[in-house]
Amino acid sequence: MTNDKTIDPAVKTMLEIAEAEGISTAFSRAAAMKQCPIGSKGGCCKNCSMGPCRLVGKHDRGICGATRETVAARGLARMIAGGASAHSDHGRDMALTLLAAAEGEAPDYTIRDVNKLLEVAELLDVPTKDRETMEIAKEVAEAALAQIGNQRGEILYLKRAPKKRQEVWRKAGVAPRGIDREVVEIMHRTHVGNDQWYDSILMAGLRTALADGWGGSMLATDITDILFGSPVPLTAQVNMGMLSEDEVNIVVHGHEPTLSEMILVAVSDPEMIEYAKSKGAKGINLTGICCTANETLMRQGVPTIGNFLSQELTIVTGAIELMIVDIQCIMQALAPVADQFHTILVTTSPKAHIEGATHVEFDEHRALEIAKEIVKMGIDNFPNRKETRIPKEINHLVAGFSHEYINYALGGFYRGSFRPLNDAIVQGRVRGIAGVVGCNNARTCHDYSHEYITRRLIENDVLVAMTGCGAIACAKYGLLSPEAAQYAGPGLREICETTGIPPVLHVGSCVDNARILTVLSQMATEGGLGEDIADLPAMGFAPEWMSEKAISIASYFVGSGLYTIMGSESPVANSPIVDRFISESWEERIGGKLEFISDPEEAVQKALEHIDKKRAALGLVEYDPTRFGQSGDRLMQQFIEAMEAGLPVNIYSATVPQLA
Ligand code: MSK
Which residues sit with their C-beta closer than 6 Å to ligand 1? Predict the structure, then answer.
């Protein structure tokens, strides 16, 4: 019964328990409620009270006269605006935290990456010479906030893109002027009786998505690195087996690291640990879900117990004393599930209340004090724990590949550069690269498409960068560990063995897709692979997307010049003209295109075709998997044999333990 709902054995076990106990989950609700066949294809307009108008059958126009094209385009543009607003408002909050820290009003935060601060200062035209760090930080925060509210000209971060890309944006009229401005303009543009030409609506949608990718999201990522440190690779564990039978289990869930970083400090406090022991626990176990998890995973190695669709099921284990949520991707259904167990659900953001949850409002001015208050609530709840049923599944991964680290890993400390990666692509060792990102979706088998597409890409020598729930998905199946090199094609396998990187790189949370843009920009400017992101043999994927943020991300990938494939049915399928426009016309004008393909193998085939087409356009050698990797094959085989023999194996070491 549950076999077709997920490929994760832990989720499968918990689903069976939930079904047996009559606990409602996203899986059971999706099975019980059919998707609206009109709204899901962009055929429904509810932008005024004369509707909702359903443009199906003989109805080609709404009451105001809006066509199928206008309705579908407006719907897509509003999804982009919703996603861009979420990322960018997150970016605003990070900038406000940086400002409070710089002004001495948030004493629990400091500047952990001064080099990143200086890099961002330069991008934002903030002078740095002979100035104190906090003085620079204050002006960087103010400049970031000014970018979010910028009204005229262009946002400054566009400078990070290759020159040719900037020219494409200016020519197409999609260079974003300000972040808030683009989002508000989409809401205005799509109001009844305003912009009624799908072409201009969709180009404005693209501009808004670019304001997210090269604006709000990029600022959010950079400021997070400044405050909490730029990630470097670390080993960590994933899946529900990381819940503890005998410690207080506290789970962070959502997207902002401001509170979760403080929770980590609080749970590490010896006084708190002693307090937990006084309540009969052996200690405190902190784990995470979704992108707050990705943030604490890649900086601190905090284990991740699941992605979007696992959130309710983690509570069904009966082992969670307290779940803290902040913003985005938090199911309202957590409250009724928590009610059936001893779990306390704590909301913390003034922007994300849930009826039935306990609200402890977070305030960065007294961050650690609030974090300790919340952790204490969890400890006090430990004696209320009853029967637990924690699945055993655990897998290992290496997380934390910032673009700075990729540069270093491939180029070395003294000559950090993307040159070796570009060379590997030129020679055909690496066929191309792909960003595989996004959510889970209860309408498709949980984790299936993420795992399938990623595995098939690395088999075909495509280096993959992952974020968000997709990264968590593939980590659960071992694809984010260096040992996964054994699944890669011979050329990619050789690179992984030489550098110690996994064939699938964890680059962060969903707001960190901006890191992928930065990597691609640096590859395009490094030389040898054209002059623009659109020239690269590169792809974007969001195989199991569900959120508006995913639509915004996919659209800014497209706006940056990438062919991007999303899973499931097109949300504009009700208008074949709009469906064609976001593929063919966007490609003509901007170099990237957006397509919705639900069959993962078809998506892989189209991606490989595209990568090979880009290789040919660059005049690179034809990809041939037999050309490289013989030595790598042998080395990996020796590692595998040593592991199978139970010898301790360090994949980063060039020395293979000797079999007797
Ligand atoms: S949490 S937006 S379900 S990736 Fe970033 Fe996961 Fe998608 Fe939310």
Answer: 255, 290-291, 307-308, 328-329, 438-439, 468-469, 509-510, 547, 549-550
Of ligand 1's atoms, which has the minimum distance to the CA of residue 439? 7
Name the 3-class secondary structure at 211. Answer: helix
Residue-wise pLDDT tens digits, 91-111:
999 999 999 999 999 999 999
| The total number of residues written for the chain in this structure | 660
Please check the confidence at residue 634 and state whether its pLDDT lies above 80. Answer: no
Q: What is the pLDDT of residue 326?
A: 95
DSSP structural state of residue 620: P
Segment among 381-385, 422-426, 603-607 with least mean pLDDT: 422-426
Taking only the tens place, the pLDDT of each residue in 248-265 is 999 999 999 999 999 999
Which class for 132: exposed (0-12), middle (13-18), buried (19 or more C-beta within 10 A)? exposed
654: pLDDT confidence band, cut at 50, 70 and 90? very low
Distance 328 CA to ligand 1 centre (A): 8
Which amino acid belongs to residue 339?
Answer: D
Position 658 scores a pLDDT of 52
How far separated are the first and last CA of the chain, in Å rounded? 47
CA of 209 to the centre of ligand 1 (A): 17
Ligand 1 atom nearest to 546, measured from its CA: 7
Question: Average pLDDT over the chain, rounded to whole?
Answer: 93
Q: How far is the CA of 327 from the centre of ligand 1 (A)?
A: 11
Burial 185-196 (b: 16+ CB within 10 A, else e): bbeebbebeebb
Atom number of ligand 1 nearest to Cα 328: 8
DSSP 229-258: -----EEEEESGGGS-SSSEEEEEEES-HH
Q: Which amino acid is at 514?
A: A
Q: What is the pLDDT of residues 514-532, one digit of tens each?
A: 999 999 999 999 889 999 9
In this structure, are residues 110 and 97 in contact, taking their beta carbons and an 8 Å threshold?
no
Q: In order of start, what are the domains of the chain with their CATH numbers? A: 63-228 (1.20.1270.30), 240-384 (3.40.50.2030), 398-627 (3.40.50.2030), 630-660 (no CATH)
Quickly list DSSP for 289-340.
EHHHHHHHHHHH---EEE-GGGHHHHHHTS--SEEEE-SSS--TTHHHHHHT
What CA–CA distance (Å, rounded) separates 244 from 134?
40
pTM greater than the 0.85 cutoff: yes
- pLDDT score at 419: 82
Q: How confident is the model at residue 635 (pLDDT cuts 50, 70, 90)?
A: low
**Cα–Cα distance measured from residue 587 to residue 298, given in angstroms and rounded to the nearest whole number:** 34
Phi and psi for 54 in degrees, rounded to 5?
-105, 110
The residue with tokens 């000209």 is 153
CA 223 to ligand 1 centroid distance, Å = 20
